Known about the structure:
Layout: E1 2-3, E2 14-21, H1 27-39, E3 43-54, E4 57-65, E5 70-71, H2 87-97, E6 102-108, H3 116-122, E7 139-143, H4 150-159, E8 164-168, H5 176-191, E9 198-202, H6 208-214, E10 218-220, H7 226-240
Parallel strand pairs: 6-7, 6-8, 8-9, 9-10
Antiparallel strand pairs: 1-5, 2-4, 3-4
Helix pairs in contact: 2-7
Amino acid sequence: xxxxxxxxxxxxxxxxxxxxxxxxxxxxxxxxxxxxxxxxxxxxxxxxxxxxxxxxxxxxxxxxxxxxxxxxxxxxxxxxxxxxxxxxxxxxxxxxxxxxxxxxxxxxxxxxxxxxxxxxxxxxxxxxxxxxxxxxxxxxxxxxxxxxxxxxxxxxxxxxxxxxxxxxxxxxxxxxxxxxxxxxxxxxxxxxxxxxxxxxxxxxxxxxxxxxxxxxxxxxxxxxxxxxxxxxxxxxxxxxxxxx
Length: 244
């Protein structure tokens, strides 16, 4: 089944693009934005919004149409799971299958100072009505915050006998997140303790396939909550028989 983007009518190929060009807002800037989108292969383009963002920068919103379609039946994805337990079900699962509290350590590592992601997963209040792991009665959650060196995170995880380690990465300029996450895995492997932990990577630019490629057990991106992380960790522990 081939599908196209939907605007006013099914499969009309209508799309909305937004981007910034390094020019002052003007009629010439709008024409530049229009030509830019046309060169991307879109038709029937229209500049519907433009706004000065800073000196020498203009933001645009453009409508256009494309003839591109995709065969939906041939698409394959690699996701952590299709269904997740809620926070009460996760605790019940732990009680039944593991029989003790699950210890989870998390941090935003390297020079990254953004704690929004790790706080949404770890802190008791959670995010968007979804409680964080600190509220789970069968989870012992340790949130180390931001700018935590990899060696400190590993040392702390060893100290508290963690079952899982959560690594949050928000800053991705010049692929600094890849370097940091790769170093984290290499340090664990150098100590021979890689398989001692369930390793979870998270962040707006992280997905499951990418995390697996770097050596993690799972990756969670935008739209992920504590129950998603919790479900994966406890089911993976049982799968690996790490409940002792």
